[in-house]
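ok so I'm stuck.
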Amino acid sequence: MYEIGILGGMGPLATSMLLEMIISRTYALCDQDHLNIIVANKSQIPDRTKFLLDPTETNPLPKLIEGIKELNKLNPRIVLIPCNTSHYFIKELQNISAAPIINMVQNTTAYIKQSDLPKSVVILGTLGTVKTRIYEIFDTCGLNIEYPQEEECQKINDIIYLIKYSGEKVLYQCAKKLTQIINGISSRSTEQKTFILGCTELSALNQYILGNRYKIVDAMELLALSAILQSGKKVQNHKKYSIDIISKNLI
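replied:
not stuck anymore, here's the structure
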């Protein structure tokens, strides 16, 4: 029995990072204490943002459904999809999935609502995530969802695709660029904000983002912690997030 099934490949680096997060944050004293995880690294799924910006592009939904059906055959207890933009299709995918899918977007907003983090929330993600307002589809009552300026959104999208194309060798360079954007957004308001790393490629930058004065929430790290707890394991190597709050939002 697999406790966790991951529909990945969007992109492959982000998928490998989620797997590493789950392994490193699971309290375990030996190999056998770790979770059984199956990964469908479906890197041939068409680009989600391209389709959401231009419906004449190839629709990724059929390939997403294909991946869910492959996981169904292996009967995991829960399913994770480490791609914020693909959550535009979450209802269709949950209808196909035999196991419950942890909704990464809803999981993140629920955490912020129940925490002492600022409720003015800035979404850092792909142009597809920004255009479709994915973070506003689900219950955001009590949160003020904001987006960077148009030029900043394009720069963030460029950072995301640079990571997709170039991998780990550009992470520090990309983190500096993202930090500059966060600095610019923060300088325009005296109100403290929470910044959501709303793309799993941006999760790769979390350790490099310069300065600790900003409230940064990594949607994929929250997903990893939720999956560990949902699977009945204890977590370790975490300091940033409240396990009590995460536990309240388990499915």
